[in-house]
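F.,

This is the one I mentioned.
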């Protein structure tokens, strides 16, 4: 419809940018990089376990919904602390999205996560929902306690069970896979907190990484991530392949560099270790259940 004198362009021009900014702010508030990484990790696990296209899609959809709910609830729960420390990189602090919108999005994603999780079967669904509840518990309370690492270890450790329990016969995953995932999750926690330790301490967040300090947390993160790969390489029965030893050595070098990195470098290094672990699972093939 052509513009007339009664509907000048200036009246409508600002609307679209504001709407686009709100959408972009809502997307940024869900922590898109770790959310996508965990979703891809779950999809790769499902593929390696032999769940087939439908099973992989079901697992990825449930994990994506859970991760969205966790990311949004995290930014909403941290709003007061982020305002105190002037975190303008946070969409809620920058004002690009309203707190009420983020809160509603978090609860909607959590509600959607329930049927998507149960689509893999009752037991698998309950296991995944326990993992999501653990992550919410971290956001709302446990991040400021000495057991701040536990929700990460529990949530990641349950992810292989969610995948394998969706297979015929609902088998539990092998212990080495559960242990490797739990170590990876705990290591990611220590790596993720490193850039924010000073701000966290200033606002009363005293989880285990904050109590250990940057240097101690970097060392713990490296050891946990290396332990995760070692469990994947040496855990399964049979001799370790040349690929496995090579991946373990590469992970050691990556962890050494990660411990010296600054800013978001340690967390990105943790994601790289996770990608290497996933590659090992895919090379190893099916039979994870």
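My design for it:
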């Amino acid at each position: 419809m052509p513009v007339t004198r009664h509907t000048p362009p200036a009246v409508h021009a600002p609307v679209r940018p504001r709407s686009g900014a709100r959408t972009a702010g809502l997307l940024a508030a869900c922590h898109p990089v770790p959310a996508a990484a965990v979703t891809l990790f779950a999809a790769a696990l499902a593929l390696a376990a032999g769940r087939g296209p439908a099973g992989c899609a079901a697992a990825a959809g449930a994990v994506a919904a859970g991760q969205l709910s966790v990311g949004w609830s995290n930014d909403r729960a941290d709003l007061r602390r982020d305002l105190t420390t002037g975190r303008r990189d946070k969409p809620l602090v920058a004002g690009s999205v309203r707190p009420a919108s983020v809160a509603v999005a978090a609860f909607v994603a959590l509600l959607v996560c329930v049927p998507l999780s149960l689509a893999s079967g009752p037991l698998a669904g309950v296991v995944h929902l326990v993992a999501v509840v653990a992550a919410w518990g971290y956001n709302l309370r446990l991040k400021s306690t000495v057991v701040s690492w536990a929700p990460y270890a529990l949530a990641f450790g349950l992810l292989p069970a969610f995948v394998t329990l969706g297979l015929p016969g609902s088998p539990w995953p092998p212990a080495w896979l559960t242990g490797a995932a739990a170590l990876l999750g705990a290591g990611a926690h220590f790596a993720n907190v490193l850039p924010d330790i000073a701000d966290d301490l200033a606002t009363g967040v005293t989880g285990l990484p904050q109590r250990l300090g940057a240097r101690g947390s970097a060392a713990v993160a490296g050891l946990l991530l290396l332990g995760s790969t070692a469990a994947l390489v040496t855990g399964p029965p049979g001799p370790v392949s040349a690929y496995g030893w090579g991946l373990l050595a590469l992970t050691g070098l990556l962890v050494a560099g990660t411990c010296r990195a600054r800013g978001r470098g340690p967390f990105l290094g943790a994601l790289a270790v996770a990608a290497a672990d996933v590659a090992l699972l895919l090379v190893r093939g099916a039979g994870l259940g």
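The chain has a mean pLDDT of 85.

Talk soon.
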